[in-house]
Amino acid sequence: MLIRNCRIVGSQGVREGDILVEGEKIVEVGRGLKGEGEVVDAGGRFVMPGVVDCHVHVRDWDEAEKEDFVSASSAAVAGGVTTFLEMPNTKPAVDSLDMLKKRVKLGVEKSLVDFGIHLGYSPEIAEMQRIDVPSVKVYLDSLTGDDVESVLEDAGRLPYPLTVHCEDPRIIRRNIEFARDSDPEDFLVHADIREKLAETSAVKIAAGLAKKTCKNVHLCHLTVPSSLRYLNNYTTCEVTPHHLLLPDVDLQSQKGFANTNPPLPPSLNVHGLWQPVTAARVDVIASDHAPHGIEEKGGDVFSAPSGIPNLDVMLPLMLDVVNRGGLALTDIVRMMCENPSRIFNVPGKGFIQPGADADLVILDMERETEVDPKQFYSKAKYSPFTGRKIQGAVDTVILRGRVAFSEGDFNVRPGFGRYLYCSIPK
Ligand code: DOR
Ligand code: ZN
Ligand code: ZN
Fold first, then answer.
1. pTM, whole model, 2 decimals?
2. Whose CA is nearest to atom 3 of ligand 1?
């Protein structure tokens, strides 16, 4: 396959040229290339590596009615996400070798795109043979009880990098007590319960552990600008499109549909969060795609579950930011393709270079759309971005050398996706 007439985007810049693909791999990038077989004319449009989304909740198994591998990976393809790393807080959880094997089997049967799986923390992992996973995930807000420090220290002794959900459960529990008599229709109560201090306290402990043990720790979905002051040489960090684009006023208007953990930040913090993003102190933008049932999201502040489905729209939302001058496409590629691939040792993904998998997205930076969750391929047909007008869209998606999605049509089937062994350097 030859993809001609591209403006190829990498973190270091944009260059005009062609991409020559043999089988599933890119073999050459340059000008005036000749090749046999299918020719795709990019028509001078931007071509970027497929997005590597390192934070996705697929739900399959007991919560398959919320999302399964087919629906999640279809949303991924349509949204320009050609690789995702699944989070292990499934029901039941993926926190043992046995469960990981079962999950991999399910994923390779059903996924359209390549995927990896973060292993959920459990004390038994210490006894387990060492395997190739992107990281061990620790949920401070739900898994640990009050023993935040000791759980993190145990996890820190495991021979894996850690990925941490940073909210201190002790602060959340105390606030739930205080909030018990609050108005259930006041959705800002959710933000009061999960106050800023819950995040900064957890970030401080997790980043401290990284430094003390010289272990890589990835801090998920940061929302509080002052969390960034705890970063060190062993930490990497992530933000989500919703925390960057939706202040808590949207929590009041969108109610349960905007409930997420950590909660949407006050407007001032949203502005504060952009500063480290534009200054390249934030490593990753990830979706934290967290689908729930539309009925339960319509509940009150105490019952609506937290989580926003983003796979269908994350890349278009960020392309709109580019069109409005907030970021450059090179930043998007750095934070959504190259860095997540590098941080989690995702083989063959995130870069347009010889030897890499031919996972490519041809962009249409002119096309204007309006977010309409009824059109989502995700089963979660709601979004706090509903009605938002955005400029910038996914035109064509190529998965391992095959045109997988073009003009709304899929050309890959469930089972095309492969499991990725993300091997951690010893
Ligand atoms: O809002 C959230 N929902 N945040 C998380 O960290 C977990 C996720 C979920 O699994 O629903
Ligand atoms: Zn989380
Ligand atoms: Zn999550």
1. 0.97
2. 307
